[in-house]
Amino acid sequence: MMSIKYVLLGFLSWRSLTGYELKQLFVDSATLFWSGNSNQIYTPLSELHKEGLVSVEVQPQGTRPPRKVYSLTAKGWDTLKSWVQSRPDAPVQKNALLLQLAWADQLPYEDLDALLQSYEEHLQMQLLIFRELARRQEAPRRTPRETFLWESIERNWLSFYEHELTWAQSVRTELTRMNAESEEG
What is the pTM for the complete model shown? Predict the structure, then answer.
């Protein structure tokens, strides 16, 4: 089962939701990065329903199309619990800049500096976006422990971006120092 299905089960363990509400939780989340379309929500929801992991209540809305409200079943809860208890995979770092830097010695100093400056600016923008999303995000906070866990996830992402920015700035500073020394000598 793909991760999005588990995230859907997780949200539905919090409360019953429509597909639209689930999509909004993804879009507004600072911690659950997702840039998919509606099919990436509704298709897994349909599969979860066929598997008996969620139930669907169709609610008439007069002249508007009926709402489908999804709820977690006991089987869905067991599946979510089993996944939560499974051993997580180690994080995979995919960073194109690191691959670019492996061969960046071929660039003139000015081009390399511009590359790193652009990366720094991108990270600064990501930090701003993340902080705003974290401020606005609606997340399950039923207990103090659940609140702590969601805040810990936010701190993890925040520290990642802050660390990456500090690292990029230190690389750029050292390359500037090295360039100055080579121009002197």
Answer: 0.77
